[in-house]
Amino acid sequence: MRYVGLDLHKHTLAVCVVDERGKVVLRESVPVRRADLEAFAKAKLESTDKVAVEATTNTWAVADILRPFVAAVVVGNPLQIRAIAQAKVKTDKIDAQVLAHLLRCDFLPEVWQPDEATRRLRQLTTLRSAVVADRTRLKNRVQSLLAQLLVVPPVKVLFSKAGLEWLRAAELPADVRSTIDLYLRLYDGVDAELRRIDDQLMALAYEDPRAKLLMTLPGVAHGVAVSLVAALGDISRFPDGDHAASYLGLTPRTRQSGAKCYHGGITKAGCPQTRAMLAQAVQAASDHPGPIGAFFRRLRKRKRHNVAVIATARKLVTVAYLMLKHNEPYRYAKPDVVRGKLADCRRKAGKAPAGAKKGTPPAAEASRLNDLYREHGLPACQPPAGWSEAERRGHGDPAVTAFAEGVHEPPAATPRRKRTAAATGTKPKAK
């Protein structure tokens, strides 16, 4: 067996091939173009070769091209490789040789390779984050121009409907007026593209059972749900929720030596867009009457606001992990809020309301919340009768327990006329 190290750049690929004893048998430089890579693989690689390459921008495209020609393509973690194999002399040839030797000695720190569907989700969520950043940049430029002229808008939110009407009609110096009009045209175009991306994400969220499951969490809408699914990928690769939170960089740094141990800020590993969206989800869930909202409010009383947000985001990830692992929606959701989120996504997905399901659910599962989940094709969650004493103690507040039991009360009987109107989306006729 041979071991192939690839030092990948934007335009060139440095190749080093070593045998089982570590002897270099081939060095080559290949242009990073599809035709050149395929020609190199056919001429120089063997079906028993193992290939090592660091994760970078174009790694997955190169790996997809080479994979049919070799036994395995291993993608290494560049941060950990740098810590293992530091050198004072650094060249592309040396880097490729180091990768080949690390693979030969089984010391190469490997990263998980996402499938094609997960990669597409990651690209779409990253695109949305970039478009949101572009829109925010345009907003800031407009507000900066107004601040330079000491103009105070008469509305609280400038980029609301009323704020935009005022901004388009405001009397300003000619040069400032033309600049703001330019920014507003750009803003309208970016905002329209963002709505199109959101429509696509909403449809994807309703079609994906994992994202639909996560949307039952407080503060988690289609964007956060799809971003979390894309970032985590195959949930079975994590032994528990703490490892999933660590993968997203939501756990504290630790520096320990001898009798001294220091815990710092979070590691910020993993996808920064997903981490930022989780923080926004926590802000939306801060007043939720369930356990997650209560956890944030308890922590906020004795910690700084940002610390409470990050700690709650970490808890949100651990809860999401358990929901995905056990295929169970959130037990403490507010039915009206979840109904709105799922109904919006269902419309974007082009799905008709399911109406009443045939068959009668088990008596233990009959509740307002489980009826809603059943309507949207979700599994039932555990009713209060199945909660353990430890789970009830974890609520920490009798009001939280009362709210949780309230959402699991049996649905009130609805007249037949109203049930029919609800299923068809029409208003019942007055007698």
Set out the fold topology.
Blueprint: E1 3-8, E2 12-18, E3 24-31, H1 34-44, E4 50-54, H2 59-66, E5 72-76, H3 78-84, H4 92-104, H5 116-148, H6 161-169, H7 174-207, H8 209-214, H9 222-232, H10 241-247, E6 252-257, E7 260-266, H11 272-285, H12 291-302, H13 305-326, H14 335-348, H15 368-375, H16 389-395, H17 398-406, H18 416-424
Helix pairs in contact: 5-7, 5-9, 7-9, 7-14, 9-11, 10-13, 11-13, 12-13
| Average of pLDDT | 90
Overall body shape: globular
Spatial order of the strands in the main sheet?
A: 3-2-1-4-5
Based on secondary structure, the structural category is alpha/beta
User: What's the N-to-C terminus distance?
Assistant: 84 Å
Helical fraction equals 40-55%
Task: State Rg.
Answer: 27 Å
Secondary-structure element string: EEEHEHEHHHHHHHHEEHHHHHHHH
- Tell me the β content: 5-15%
Tell me what the structure shows.
- This protein is 54% helix and 10% strand.
- The protein is globular and about 75 Å long.
- β1 and β2 form a beta hairpin.
- α7 crosses α9, α10 crosses α13 and α12 runs antiparallel to α13.
- The longest helix has 34 residues.
- It folds into three domains: 102 residues, ATPase, nucleotide binding domain (Nucleotidyltransferase, domain 5); 92 residues; 208 residues, no CATH class.
- It has 431 residues and is α/β, with parallel strands linked by helices.
- It contains 18 helices and seven strands.
Brief write-up:
The chain has 431 residues and is of the alpha/beta class.
Defining traits:
single chain; 431 residues; alpha/beta; Nucleotidyltransferase, domain 5; 3 domains; two-stranded antiparallel ribbon; 54% helix
